[in-house]
UniProtKB/TrEMBL annotation:
UniProt remark on cofactor binding: Binds 1 Mg(2+) ion per subunit. The magnesium is bound as Mg-PRPP.
Name of the protein in question: Uracil phosphoribosyltransferase
PANTHER family attached to this UniProt entry: ADENINE PHOSPHORIBOSYLTRANSFERASE, URACIL PHOSPHORIBOSYLTRANSFERASE, CHLOROPLASTIC
Pathway as given in its UniProt record: Pyrimidine metabolism; UMP biosynthesis via salvage pathway; UMP from uracil: step 1/1
Protein residues bound to 5-phospho-alpha-D-ribose 1-diphosphate: R99, R124, D151, P152, M153, L154, A155, T156, G157, G158, T159, D223
Catalytic activity: UMP + diphosphate = 5-phospho-alpha-D-ribose 1-diphosphate + uracil
Functional summary from the UniProt entry: Catalyzes the conversion of uracil and 5-phospho-alpha-D-ribose 1-diphosphate (PRPP) to UMP and diphosphate.
Gene Ontology biological process terms in this record: UMP salvage; uracil salvage
Lineage per the UniProt record: Bacteria, Bacillati, Actinomycetota, Actinomycetes, Streptosporangiales
Pfam families noted in UniProt: UPRTase
Gene Ontology molecular-function annotations: GTP binding; magnesium ion binding; uracil phosphoribosyltransferase activity
Binding site for uracil: I217, G222, D223, A224
Top-level EC class: transferase
EC number per UniProt: 2.4.2.9
Amino acid sequence: MPSMGFSFPKENPSSLLAWPLMEILAVHHPLVAHKLTALRDVNTDSPTFRRLADELVTLLAYEATRDVRVSPVTVDTPLQPAQGVRLSRPAPLVVPILRAGLGMLDGMTRLIPTAEVGFLGMVRDEDSLKAQTYATRLPDDLAGRQCYVLDPMLATGGTLVAAIQLLFDRGARDVTAITLLAAPEGLATVESAFPAETPIRIVTAAVDERLNENGYIIPGLGDAGDRLYGVV
Ligand code: URA
């Protein structure tokens, strides 16, 4: 069956920021704003932070998957046949970046339970702020796959660039990153890292002001991994 093509929602009330080569969707919705505000709050404890992050990802995933590929099907209702759609094969690939991206996985797979899940283990060197990859678990061939990368904080952009490059190296060309927060510096880094003909989509709850000298997003929410899992 041919896939039905849906385009990314240009007319969506959320803002598609004017970044020339990248589609950036900052989702404007009262529930997104409410949950993000509670995540920012330094008084929010880890269990509550985990729950809120999970809920927020589901809301962001709803927007991020507007162009997920579906194929037409006919089903029998109790009364008569009806036209509908099913998710196309191959299933989308969801790739959380360990450690903090793991806190986003359930929120994503709740919407697409048939998604396959790859893993990337990456750590940011706190001196150089460069990403180091310590684990890769991905299908060898990602040609034609819709890929959704999960990383809560798009800060310098180094980790996301390295992750997307690993997907591109395996043939992926349709990559959407879902983040809780993004910094303008990180968005610029990701945009300049990839050619115009392979645009990356970024879906985020908000684009914050800036990075501080330690590469933290301001005002941000602190260290997402620590807030999800404690300081380990
Ligand atoms: N990683 C985080 O967890 N928080 C930031 O603000 C930046 C990077």
